[in-house]
Amino acid sequence: MVLNAKPSQDFVPIKEVRDGIAVLKDNSMRGILLASSLNFALKSEDAQTAVISQFQNFLNSLDFSIQIFMESRHLDIRPYLALLEERYKAQTTELLKIQTREYIGFIKSFIEGTNIMTKTFFVVIPFTPPILQKTGSQSGLKGFLKKNRSETTESKMELFEENRSQLEQRMSVVEQGLIRSGVRVAKLGTEEIVELFYKLFNPGETEKPIKID
Fold first, then answer.
1. Are 26 and 102 within one domain?
2. Are both 100 and 57 inside the same structural domain?
3. Digit-coded pLDDT (tens) for 119-131
4. Residue 91 and residue 167 share a domain
5. 69: Cβ contacts below 8 Å, ≥ 6 apart
6. Are 62 and 144 in contact (CB under 8 A)?
7. CA distance 167 to 160
8. Which of 45, 92, 116, 207 has a CB 3.0–4.6 Å from the CB of 75, allowing a cystine?
9. Is residue 1 in some structural domain?
10. In this structure, is residue 86 part of a structural domain?
């Protein structure tokens, strides 16, 4: 039995990532904000109540949907171990070399018996361009003219910029609301979005071995 395998791109709804915006195959757009965590348990009861109230007001003020996404991954400690190995080789004092080697051994034994995870939070803001539907011969003529206009590169650029402006207004609303709740945010650029989705669809890449002496 022969199966016709489909490329992984067929299962990814993204058409392109452009100017810090993910454009899906249905021409809708997604902007992504990186959000910081909040030490909620360490706050006083009054501070916790204020955060909850502010976040509730933020959610109630939205007239569009958002998606809060948490990425949980094993903490890759190998680059840190590689750095320690370089420091060990550069040591000229025998005592410091012994201490560095013992510290490396402690770190290795610690991570072998402990499942260390790192969590990253993202907020996804959508925007779907409106689709105008009209009836009658006049709408058919306008639709024909609009179709011809949309085929030009210049008009596509204008349409993209117009839709991106609408999306960025939404992102600004979300950003201000989160900041008022005590959450720091940063907009992902094109390279960051590409890297994020690459890691999501290729989780094994972070598990490739790094040679450590």
1. no
2. no
3. 899 999 999 988 7
4. no
5. 121, 122, 123, 124
6. no
7. 10
8. 116
9. no
10. yes
Q: How far is CA 28 from the centre of its chain?
A: 17
Residue 33 and residue 176: Cα distance in Å, rounded? 12
Read off the tokens for 121. 């939070």
Do 97 and 122 lie in one domain? The reply is no
Burial track 53-83 (b if 16+ CB lie within 10 A, e otherwise):
eebeebeeeeeeebeeeeeeeeeeeeeebee
> What SS3 state is found at 115?
coil
**Do residues 67 and 140 both lie within one domain?**
yes
Is 186 a residue whose pLDDT tops 90?
A: yes
Helices (H), ranges, the chain? 45-61, 78-90, 94-113, 137-150, 153-180, 190-201
Q: Which of 64, 69, 70 lies closest to 169, judged by CA? A: 64
- Report d(CA 71, CA 127) in Å as an integer: 22
Query: Token digits for 30?
Result: 């997604």
Q: Of the candidates 199, 174, 192, which has an alpha carbon nearest to the alpha carbon of residue 17?
A: 192
140, 198: one domain = yes
Task: Check whether residue 97 and residue 177 sit in a common domain.
Answer: no
Is 3 within a domain? no
Distance (Å) of CA 38 to CA 34, 78, 181? 13, 27, 10
Percent of the chain past pLDDT 90, that is, above it, reads 38
Length of the chain: 213
